[in-house]
Specification:
With about 280 residues, the chain is of the alpha+beta class. The chain has two domains: about 90 residues; about 150 residues, 2-Layer Sandwich (60s Ribosomal Protein L30, Chain: A). Helices cover about 60% and strands about 10% of the residues. The chain contains five helices and four strands. The protein has a four-stranded mixed β-sheet. The longest helix has about 120 residues. The chain is rod-shaped.
Amino acid sequence: MRHRSRLVEDNRELEVWPAFTDLMSNSFMILSLLLLLAVIKSLFIQSISDANQDRALQLQQQISSLQSQLQQKTNEVTGLQGKLGNLQNQVTQLHGSVTTSKEELKQKSNRVTELETEIEKLMSPPVIVIQDSKTRRFESGSAEISGDLKGFIEEDLVGKIENWAQEYKGYVVEVIGHTDGQVNQGSSSNLDTHLEQVARGNESVSSLQPGSNADLGLMRALAVVKELQKNPRLKELGLKFRAYSAAQLYSPGGDYAGANRKPDQSRRRIEVRFTPSAVER
């Protein structure tokens, strides 16, 4: 019995050992698996870490590149802003130049208008004609001013000359005597010896004796001039008067007159003209 009991115990011990072996084998396998998992995890984490570092490096490089591009664009924008500022200054200057040019153009246009007016004045100075009539006439062969003619000069002619003198300042007043074509039947002329004395007021116009229509025209023009020079209103204006004779040379239309020795009232006249002062060149 004891022997049998011993055998049973030995058999039981033998049965426990395989189980222990299996247990140890399984434990080893489990530990190996855990170790493998740990290694795989470590490798995976390392791989992810390396990938993240590479990605982070790439992103950092991209950020640096973008920052460089941004700085370059910022510099370009700054340069463009500077150019824009220069262009704006140029536009402002151009606006100023245009405004100045407009003012200069306006001034020049006004000056052109003034010059055109002056040219028109020079081309067509005013002419006042004292036409021979019953109340405004000289006696045949005489330069004596009648009462009616003197009244016309003082009341009408002086006023016209005053008005024109305001517009034609600095102009000379020319008085021109025109006669008809009748042959002068008077005595010989004494103008060569007395004309200067009459012009200075030392002698009267009546002291002159015409020897031709040229003499007679000059005497009548001088008589009108002397009458105008005595007027106080014209003295204040400081006008200069000049007496000339056209004799029978010109018709009322300004053309050369034909040879007509008959009396012709339409040709007998006194012309008063405003003429710019001549300058010798």
